[in-house]
Specification:
Blueprint: E1 17-21, E2 24-27, E3 32-35, H1 38-41, H2 50-62, H3 73-84, E4 90-94, H4 97-114, E5 122-126, H5 135-139, H6 144-147, E6 157-160, H7 165-170, E7 176-182, H8 195-208, E8 211-215, E9 239-242, E10 253-257, H9 278-291, H10 296-314, E11 322-328, E12 331-336, H11 342-353, E13 355-356, E14 358-360, E15 364-367, H12 375-398
Parallel strand pairs: 3-13, 5-6, 5-7, 7-8, 8-9
Antiparallel strand pairs: 1-2, 2-3, 4-10, 9-10, 11-12, 12-15, 14-15
Helix pairs in contact: 2-9, 3-9, 10-12, 11-12
Bound molecules: pyridoxal-5'-phosphate.
Pyridoxal-5'-phosphate is lined by residues 96-98, 101, 130-132, 182, 186-187, 215, 217-218, 243-244.
């Protein structure tokens, strides 16, 4: 037998973390990494945050799981807090991002169905998008690396170019249900939607009776310095998916919707055995407790500005490697210049300089630190990054 017991779908690297302390990960041999990947934008409060740890431990000892057949004081409480702080009137809790996407697609189809327009089932989605790995979610992206070999996929998706409003509007027809779009594309290359694009999609939805579904699984929950990335655009969606940062590392996601958009989601239309269990709700409450402390989001904005400014200073010194900085707040990406390859550079930073970042599409690497970083973490990152850039250029020059 050559297959590994862990199904070999990931190109796992040599970092084998066994412990986390704040913004650092510690490997099997005690080696320390500065974690500016944060579980891919998940560990918003870093590792081992006392508020989150205590909430989970206390809740685990009290009540971990009950069926959604019973009343949920825990779910009601967290849903109310999320409703109070967002556009939404109602929330469905999931265990992951992709489950929130599934709920969003179903909510949109059902909306038009109960409105007497079952033919309006198609979502316009965007090239380079990433919405997760379910059959529904891989059908909602044009990326071959996620779709190949899994056909036939779910019908009902049209693909437009991201940030190309005209192109997206041109795809609207009598079968269109709405748009599904990342407010800031993450995996695809850390590209923020332009104001004209996001606002234009909103306007088109209002004019044509379509639903605007924002995927804020990566860019929501404080990551960009606002609680929700849509706040940068002065619009609100009809449906929105969140996950990643929402549980600070505990598996949790949510599909948010307005009362109007959710009108088809009545008793019996959707469900999840684990979704919204008391343990997940305790984690979600703890993350919100920390994020709602005065100054938390201002801190994210401030650290994001500092980090970006430091990158901007560093780039001209290595302009053969780096092309531009992308993203918002603490969701930053650096686009590399060919022949430098972002995936190789991420490995170099990790293996030779103890700095964890994440590769993305379009030859970009992602910098997604915990939202609780301080100045000293930024200095440590810049030190390691410039060292890494220096040794990387030497390596390629001599290669
Ligand atoms: C990570 C991600 C997903 C998928 O989330 P999972 O929890 O891995 O299912 C979907 N959309 C975006 C924008 C993401 O970044």
């Amino acid at each position: 037998m050559t297959i590994t017991p862990l199904m070999p779908v990931y190109p796992r690297c040599g970092v084998r973390p066994v412990r986390g302390e704040g913004c650092y990960l510690i490997g099997e041999r005690g080696e320390r990494y500065l974690d500016f990947a944060a579980g891919i934008a998940v560990n918003a409060l870093g590792h081992g945050h006392p508020t989150l740890v205590k909430a989970i431990a206390d809740q685990a000892a009290t009540l971990m799981h009950v069926s959604n057949l019973y009343g949920s004081p825990q779910g009601e409480s967290l849903a109310q807090r999320i409703v109070d702080m967002s556009f939404a009137d109602t929330v469905f809790f999931t265990n992951s991002g992709v489950e929130a996407i599934e709920c969003a697609i179903k909510t949109a189809r059902r909306y038009h169905d109960v409105n007497g327009n079952p033919e309006r089932y198609k979502l316009i989605t965007f090239k380079n998008a990433f919405h997760g790995r379910s059959l529904g979610a891989i059908s909602a992206t044009d990326q071959p690396k996620m779709r190949d070999g899994f056909e036939p996929l779910l019908p009902g998706f049209d693909y437009a170019k991201f940030n190309d409003l005209e192109g997206a509007l041109a795809l609207i027809d009598g079968e269109t249900a709405g748009f599904l779009v990342e407010t800031v594309q993450g995996e695809g290359g850390m590209t923020a939607g332009t104001p004209e694009f996001i606002q234009g999609l909103r306007k088109a939805c209002d004019e044509h009776g379509l639903l605007l579904i924002l995927d804020e699984i990566q860019c929501g929950y404080g990551r960009t310095g606002k609680m929700w990335a849509y706040e940068h655009y002065g619009i609100t969606p009809d449906i929105m998916t969140v996950a990643k940062g929402i549980g600070g590392g505990f598996p949790l996601g949510a599909c948010l919707a307005t009362e109007e958009a959710a009108k088809g989601m009545v008793i019996g239309t959707h469900g999840s055995t684990y979704g919204g269990n008391p343990l997940a709700m305790a984690a979600g409450e703890a993350v919100l407790d920390v994020m709602q402390e005065p100054g938390f989001l201002d801190h994210v904005t401030k650290m994001g500005d500092r980090l970006r400014a430091a990158f901007e200073q560093l780039i001209p010194n290595y302009d053969h490697l780096f092309e531009e900085i992308r993203g918002k707040g603490l969701m930053l990406g650096i686009k590399m210049k060919e022949p430098a390859v972002s995936r190789d550079f991420v490995a170099h930073l990790r293996d030779n300089h103890g700095l964890l970042t994440v590769a993305a599409g379009e030859n970009v690497f992602r910098v997604l630190p915990p939202l609780i970083i301080e100045e000293n973490h930024i200095s440590a990152c810049i030190e390691r990054l410039s060292e890494g850039a220096r040794t990387y250029s030497t390596a390629t020059a001599t290669a």
